[in-house]
Amino acid sequence: MASSPQYPRMIPNLGETLGDSGNLLARARRGERAAQAALFHEHRDRVARQLLRMTGDANSVDDLLQEVFIAVFNALPGFRGDSQLETWMYTIAANKVRNWWDSSRRRRRRESRAGEREPPSPTTPEEELARQRHRDRLYAALGELPHKYREAFAARVLEGMTLKEASTALGVGISTLSYRTRKAEQLLCEALGIPGRKPS
Amino acid sequence: MSREPEHHHPDTRFELPPELAELVAAARAQPLPPIKTTPEQIYDGWRARRRADRASWLAGGLALAAGLALVLLSPDAPLSSSQSEPAAPEVSARVAAAPTPERVAPATVTPATVEAPELPCRRSSPRASSCRRLSPASLTSCACWRRCGSSSPSTPGRAASRSRPATAAS
After folding, report:
1. Which pTM was predicted?
2. CB B156 within 8 A of CB B105
3. Which end of chain A has the least Cβ crowding within 10 Å, N or C?
4. Record: contact B27-A138, CB cut-off 8 A
């Protein structure tokens, strides 16, 4: 497929990527170490940023990154190229994050029951501390949302994808995605005690 | 669960309430942490995963093949030890080799039941379990029921309890 102008940010140089790295992909599929390393370097930062925005937990990014790339290389022989590689990897990462939220939510509930939540580091500057509080508040509320709403909100609002990009990446229709994003916003406002947007 | 409504929305950027927008901005501003993962770790992890997957496929395949072979090669599988005829000579030999007080009692029971005169089974079935479907009256004359009823040398009480209805009926 030729490079599509409607995916300028999410998939830069897609045509080049598929054209030039077709050979790279085939070699990685065969399990060639150097090809896999090249693919990893090419996509590492984008996947890491996605994982960070979806989880809000910088400490988990490395672990999740490993899981995602191992899963990607494991499933690479089955990748037929129906979708773009980036979209396919986004879906794999979203699934890993989904599992992470499940286990993370369980862990946090255990911790909150035991009252073991660690206080933030006292060495953090005030502004960063305020940001960190904002992030904690947002991700705590996001973690309580059903997967489908959280993923829609993360893709559209946190990742800043267009409706079409997010719809392709998450494998749902555009109108469904739009509804889920609005619903996620509404649920977040309720959970955070923020007055919601007035219906137009 | 209710069906999600289908409405077409223009692809406009999200306009969040200011307070939520502030939280989102803080989340978006979070810097990417330094990535410590190396391609070597990924490669090693991938190889280990592939090995584990192959091993589990192999184990599953072998188990399936063994199960199939068991079913196909022995359609008339031997009965379990509680239902089949007792391995009397084997037990006797072992008892003879090491006559402990615990084993003397079953050993004395086994020859007695083996030596009992055999009557023809009315069902003419080689399976002793079929005797259980016979009427209580016919059990007394069924040789394989007798064998089966006293087949477990280690549990003489069970043998006795099995023969109780037949005795009561007669």
Report:
1. 0.61
2. yes
3. C
4. yes
